[in-house]
Amino acid sequence: MAFTSTQSPFSGRARLNSRGTLNWIAWALLVIGALNWGSIGLFDVNLVALIFSGMPAIGRAAYVLVGVAGVYFLSVPFQGAHDDAQ
């Protein structure tokens, strides 16, 4: 199976299309999730639970969004290159 090349969300293009914007949002969510897991592993501090301690539904939604971003990024290698000049 051959993997196609994809455009990085860091390509530096001035204009973002819908997939580029989605890549940036998913990337930001993954960074938030990674920082949270790092803080749990290093310091035993769950930042999401700490920030949203009084709002469990919002904290749960944050976990779901990070999970959806991870699943989305699993599909990125199979999306293929796209044309920004649409």
Would you report the number of β strands?
0
Number of helices: 3
The arrangement of helices and strands along the chain is HHH
Class inferred from helices and paired strands: mainly alpha
On the 0-100 scale, what is the average pLDDT? 82
- Note the main sheet: none
Q: Estimate what percentage of residues fall within beta strands.
A: under 5%
Shape: elongated
Please compute the radius of gyration using only Cα atoms. 16 Å
Specify the helix fraction band: 55-70%
Gap between N and C termini: 28 Å
The unreliable regions are none
Task: Name the descriptors.
86 residues; mainly alpha; 3 helices; elongated
Helix and strand topology:
Elements: H1 18-43, H2 47-51, H3 56-75
Helix pairs in contact: 1-3
Quick overview of this protein structure:
This protein has 86 residues and is mainly alpha-helical. It has helices at 18-43, 47-51, 56-75. The protein is elongated and about 40 Å long.
